[in-house]
Amino acid sequence: MSASSEHVQILHPSGDAMPRVGLGTWKAPKGVVRQAVQDAIRIGYRAIDCASDYGNEVEVGEGIRAAIDAGICKREDLFVTSKLWNTFHAKEHVEPACRRTLSDLGLDYVDLYLIHFPIALKYIPFETRYPPEWTVDPNVENPVMEFADITIRETWEAMEAVHALGLAKNIGVSNFNVALLMDLLKYAKVHPSVLQIEFHPLLQQPTLRKFCASKKIAVTGYSNFGGLSYIPLGMAHAKSAPELLKDERLIEIGKRQGKSSAQVILGFCVSENVIVIPKSTNADRLKQNMEIFDLSFTEDDLAYLCSLDQKLRFNNPAIYADYP
């Protein structure tokens, strides 16, 4: 994968180059995500972030294959991330879950495989329901989660086995805090390459990011524009949260440089050494989301952006999955 050092993050310990802007696919609907992936690769994206839980990995894989078949790129030019879902944390389920993802994507390996949440749930077989989602049976009147007695260590050691088999070139975690990372690092034989977290101006998590930097763990941020993606899920605090894209100061910062407020937000994330994975199925916005590396911020700009931090988290299982 060739790219300027400005545009990639070198992962530890593999030395692989991970693009600092990738395509997110959460909530990218079936029927359009295949074309969105192909369009993104044609525009210049080389990183695709997906997950079994998103329910669209087959279509994502079709978009990747179409781009490769069209001669736009080769497989080795791409950096593909996927994630292990909560119901597959037992050591005997991790490899089959990874292989199911690979089968759906039509790939021999992923470049990065993450533990999606530090939450182990009751196993649900593929043939029962896939993706399994959060609850044991979402069709009953009052769906409930059922937790599984599985340690993160058991899951991580199975992740290391997947890495040893060459099914994942890098492994990491998502939605972990400092305490969980400290524990993981005490027994990990393969160093976690990446932590993926919610990151936007309303939730900047500086202490967590500082810890990751000290341990050579790259940080990917999702939901870069704040609560927009959570409003359709019925989250009241997302609906009442500040609308970052309409923030007058961010609009003004962008106008000075011929950029949109969305580009300002993404540029800020990257300036904070956070890899971004904005989702879009619109070709024009896909292109704009890549055009952020020429942005510059004054001290006043950065002070304002940092002042927006409200520690406001939207991806909180305590709200939407009744997680204690």
Topology diagram in text:
Blueprint: E1 8-10, E2 17-19, E3 23-24, H1 33-43, E4 47-49, H2 57-69, E5 79-84, H3 91-105, E6 112-115, H4 152-164, E7 171-174, H5 178-187, E8 194-198, H6 206-214, E9 218-222, H7 236-239, H8 248-256, H9 261-271, E10 275-276, H10 283-290, H11 299-307, H12 317-320
Parallel strand pairs: 3-4, 4-5, 5-6, 6-7, 7-8, 8-9, 9-10
Antiparallel strand pairs: 1-2
Helix pairs in contact: 1-2, 2-3, 3-4, 8-9
Characterization of the model:
The termini are far apart. This protein is globular. The chain is an alpha/beta fold and 324 residues long. α1 crosses α2. The model has no long low-confidence stretch (mean pLDDT 95). The strands form two sheets. Strands 3-4-5-6-7-8-9-10 form an eight-stranded parallel sheet, with helices on one face. A two-stranded antiparallel ribbon has the order 1-2. It has helices at 33-43, 57-69, 91-105, 152-164, 178-187, 206-214, 236-239, 248-256, 261-271, 283-290, 299-307, 317-320, and strands at 8-10, 17-19, 23-24, 47-49, 79-84, 112-115, 171-174, 194-198, 218-222, 275-276.
Shape: globular
Structural class designation:
alpha/beta
The main sheet comes to: 8 strands, parallel
What is the number of strand segments? 10
State the helix count: 12
- Helical content (DSSP H or I, runs of 4+): 25-40%
Strand order of the main beta sheet, please? Answer: 3-4-5-6-7-8-9-10
Q: Note the run of SSEs as H and E.
A: EEEHEHEHEHEHEHEHHHEHHH
| Poorly predicted spans | none
Beta-strand proportion: 5-15%
- Global Rg: 19 Å
Give the terminus-to-terminus CA distance.
42 Å
Mean pLDDT: 95
